[in-house]
């Protein structure tokens, strides 16, 4: 379960981000002059971002049983699987950035055996997260700009069946089961600024997903996400 002190700290951080986003964007560009940014690194310091990430989800939680006591329900989860995420972010200051992300990971297959018939589906974890990202060196090191992030949001786990040997082979939402949990997330990464409008990034993010009840034989879906991403930079 999530530690209550950490939850309160995360909520405070997110509230500060939401409050800061009401500040006028023009305040971010108040440098020594009112001239347009001269270099790609100057643009990075004032730009909003939108982009996507692709990487590997590495399971860190406890190993779940492969089947229930009857042997009629089986789960085939991999320790490493693909993770996909889209995000949009608002530059609050050269040091501070607010980001909303939507991510999804397919943890593996589930099989329900009923006599000679099988029902086969999957277990998906979807994340809806809001992060405060801090750039401690806003001017970067060469073309690299490191950062750390903290935040949290909603984790949604869904198990359903998409194929069955009984009757019509394809079903929608058959034997669906879902869980939701509020949780935190922390990460670190670096931006590689390629141009005034394009940057690459690498990131590692700790995502301690723990549901209050079992979902496909376990409630522990804690993991690390290792991703690379590409982002479009834009400023008003």
Task: Quickly list its features.
236 residues, mainly beta, eight-stranded antiparallel β-barrel, two-stranded antiparallel sheet, 2 helices, 11 strands, 10% helix, disordered N terminus
Give the CATH topology: Porin
Task: State the helicity in percent bands.
Answer: 10-25%
CATH architect. name: Beta Barrel
Average pLDDT across residues? 83
Distance between the termini: 42 Å
In angstroms, what is the radius of gyration?
A: 21 Å
Characterize the main sheet.
Answer: 8 strands, antiparallel, barrel
Q: How many helix segments?
A: 2
Shape annotation? elongated
Count of separate structural domains: 1
Structure characterization notes:
There is one protein chain. This protein is mainly beta and 236 residues long. It has one domain: Beta Barrel (Porin), CATH 2.40.160. The chain is built from 2 helices and 11 strands, in the order H-H-E-E-E-E-E-E-E-E-E-E-E. The strands form 2 sheets. An 8-stranded antiparallel beta barrel has the order 1-3-4-5-6-7-8-11. Residues 1-6 and 12-33 have low confidence and may be disordered.
Question: Would you spell out the secondary-structure blueprint of this structure?
Answer:
Layout lengths: L3 H17 L19 H7 L1 E12 L13 E5 L2 E12 L4 E19 L2 E18 L9 E21 L5 E24 L4 E10 L2 E6 L2 E3 L2 E12 L2
Short description:
The chain is mainly β and 236 residues long. It has one domain: Beta Barrel (Porin).
């Amino acid at each position: 379960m999530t530690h209550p002190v950490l939850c309160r700290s995360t909520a405070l951080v997110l509230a500060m981000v939401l409050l800061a986003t009401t500040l006028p964007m023009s305040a971010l560009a108040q440098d020594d002059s009112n001239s347009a940014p001269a270099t790609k690194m100057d643009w990075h310091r004032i730009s909003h971002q939108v982009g996507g990430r692709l990487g590997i989800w590495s399971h860190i939680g406890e190993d779940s049983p492969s089947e229930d006591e009857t042997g009629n329900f089986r789960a085939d989860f991999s320790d490493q699987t693909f993770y996909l995420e889209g995000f949009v972010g608002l530059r609050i200051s050269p040091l501070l950035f607010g980001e909303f992300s939507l991510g999804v990971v397919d943890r593996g297959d589930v099989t329900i055996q009923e006599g000679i018939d099988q029902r086969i589906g999957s277990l998906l974890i979807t994340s809806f997260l809001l992060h405060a990202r801090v750039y401690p060196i806003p001017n970067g090191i060469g073309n690299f700009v490191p950062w750390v992030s903290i935040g949290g949001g909603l984790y949604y786990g869904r198990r359903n069946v998409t194929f069955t040997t009984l009757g019509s082979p394809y079903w929608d939402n058959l034997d669906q089961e879902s869980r939701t949990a509020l949780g935190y997330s922390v990460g670190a990464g670096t931006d590689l600024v390629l141009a005034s409008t394009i940057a690459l990034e690498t990131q590692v993010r700790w995502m301690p997903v723990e549901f209050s009840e079992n979902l496909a034989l376990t409630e522990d879906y804690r993991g690390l996400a290792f991703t690379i991403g590409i982002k479009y930079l834009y400023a008003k």
